[in-house]
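Kindly inspect both lines:
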Amino acid sequence: MTAQILTRAVTIIGSDDDAVASARTLAAEFAVDAAERDLNRILPAAEIDALSAAGLFAITVPREYGGADVRASTVSEVFRLLATADPNIAQIPHSHFVYVNLLRLTATSRQREQLFGEILSGGRLANAQSERASKTVRDINTTLKPIGSGGFVLQGTKYYCTGSLFADRIPVLARLDDPNHVAGLEEGEYVAYVPATTPGVTVEDDWDALGQRLTASGTVRLNDVQIAAEWVVPRNPAFDQPHSYGAFAQLLHAAIDVGIARGALDEAATFVNTKSRPWYEAEVEHAASDPLVIQRFGELSVEVAAAESVLRTAGERLDRALAMPHEQSATEASIAVATAKILGEKASIAASSALFEVSGTRSAAAELNLSRHWRNARTHTLHDPIRWKYQHIGRHALSGTAPPRSAVI
């Protein structure tokens, strides 16, 4: 039930500013070939290795374990920068940071010491969480059964396992199947941090979607996978008290959407300035001088800037909630993050669609692959419906009702 975890030569980032600077440098590099990678389905293995080497996977490891322990708002900015360049690369480490956060909340000190040490040595996490056969996304059929002296066996199939092809450990969400209480654990959901090379683990590169094509979000099959109890972490306690566990995960999703919006708007501006022809009725020399095009860019710029501003505010609210956790601060953070998610989704879809409107017929050429912005926006924003975020925001505005303690708010 043990497997060797790969270690890598990595930089240890020491501050929030260093994390953002590193992400900005890498994002500029990743943007160069983003269209080609998507067009030809070239998985970003080298780019993910570069993120590891730069130390960005370890930036939330607590200081007492040797990490930079950067603020949530800093992680959000790292994701936004990466998503502006290539949202596939931004989404791949999303689950890594969520499951590092779970370790902070519910793991034992021994588990933290071991797993944080692996992450500081370049270890990467993914996820095996979602299922297709269950009634709703919250229902989990994958089982975790005790098999004797401190061990368990996992059985199930997971889908949409983002980043699984690049992971050293795959955190698997499972429900405890122990009617006789052999393991002495409370009923509920647990996450097993399974080494990707464990016998019985099969990672399939079968992700075939409209957008976010390169996130390695394929299938993970678990066939009698044995895992030691030391790598099993309870999930339910993360929701037992004001925690902002869900708000942190959602903040990073919002940052991806906002990054997509900025990337689409920037590419539209470049195209109009360098390739678009002016419409003859405008009677101007350049497309960028068309007053109707200027008007549209003004509208889009305001929408994207508003999403960016609200994202920053949400990050700051979450920073405060994590520093001083209580019901009010957690509620304020969740509402702010939900607002950012709504505006990010709307801005990403609007900007990526309007790119063609303002750029003209030439922008539809398949070889340019400008459609990737809209495809990525439309696919990523399906992650969880904003219509329910409006509900939670509305209830809070009308009656002060706090949103539920959930992974999606």
